[in-house]
Amino acid sequence: MPAITMYTTKVCPYCIAAKRLLNKKGAAFEEVDVSFDAAKREELIKLAGGRMTVPQIFIGDYHVGGCDELYELEASGKLDTLLNG
């Protein structure tokens, strides 16, 4: 399984929903909380091509995007393929 990184904040309902889906899939992920960390927030913006919203999810080298995109991958059946490498 490729490494999964998710940039989040503490009170984001979309972050909670994305984490719930990944947990349901049994996918381990690294959570990077950008709530009060300007350097981590800048890292997020750079990696996400200028996007500033959370969550921003990366599976391996693939930038999924946010929660909506993660659920779209699940609905299309493509999330399992990504998670299995």
Strand content: 15-25%
Average predicted confidence as pLDDT? 96
Indicate the radius of gyration in whole angstroms: 12 Å
Helix tally equals 4
What does it look like?
With 85 residues, this protein is an alpha+beta fold. The protein has 4 helices and 4 strands. Strands 2-1-3-4 form a 4-stranded mixed sheet, with helices on both faces. The longest helix has 12 residues. The model has no long low-confidence stretch (mean pLDDT 96).
In a nutshell, what does this entry contain?
By secondary structure, the chain is an alpha+beta fold.
Helix and strand topology:
Blueprint: E1 4-8, H1 13-24, E2 30-33, H2 38-47, E3 56-59, E4 62-65, H3 67-76, H4 78-83
Parallel strand pairs: 1-2
Antiparallel strand pairs: 1-3, 3-4
Helix pairs in contact: 1-3
Give keywords.
alpha+beta; 4 strands; 4 helices; single chain; four-stranded mixed sheet; 85 residues
